[in-house]
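hey team, just a heads up i'm posting the complex here instead of the shared drive bc the drive is being weird again. everything in one block, sequence lines first with there labels, then the predicted structure for the whole assembly after. its two chains so it's a bit long, scroll down
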Amino acid sequence: GAVVSQHPSRVICKSGTSVKIECRSLDFQATTMFWYRQFPKQSLMLMATSNEGSKATYEQGVEKDKFLINHASLTLSTLTVTSAHPEDSSFYICSAAEMALRNEKLFFGSGTQLSVL
Amino acid sequence: AQSVTQLGSHVSVSEGALVLLRCNYSSSVPPYLFWYVQYPNQGLQLLLKYTSAATLVKGINGFEAEFKKSETSFHLTKPSAHMSDAAEYFCAVNGQGAQKLVFGQGTRLTINP
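-- predicted structure starts here --
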């Protein structure tokens, strides 16, 4: 089946630094990718929708200047957490929609655990 | 707006017993409904989905779910639990966009030997 690769799986950084997370669709083209955030023992909250070649659409309450999303190609979307702070520590998960299939088919990455010291 | 409510944040069953994870949805349009499983520190894996075809949906790993419009429910079941079923389970409904999903709070399934 379709595979979505997310990298890195775990990152620890100092407060004030920026962290980039990559989400790649390995064997299909994804016009749309989604970024979710998950706090411990909680559900996934959609942060933004990333469309190839255009600006991302952010959910209400998500700071677009803090969470920079780039979707430069049909197989890669990146999420950059700028000037990270401890409250940004969370599990970030991406998902990608395959063009050839019906819209309801999504594939998820394995997630990135971000810890900000 | 669409939403999903999972009843019970934690369910514990014995190995070999029936698994029942409850999910109720709210949707102003005919919903697409999904069940996902998440193992520790991993992403989500699709178990099954309902897309307006058969109301009884069979998924992977022996799981199935039944869409009941009158009850606005989409409960997940498995006749006989296995130790490997221990994980977090999420019910989800299509949001406003074609692929945007709205997730429930999740149910942690524990299997007792």
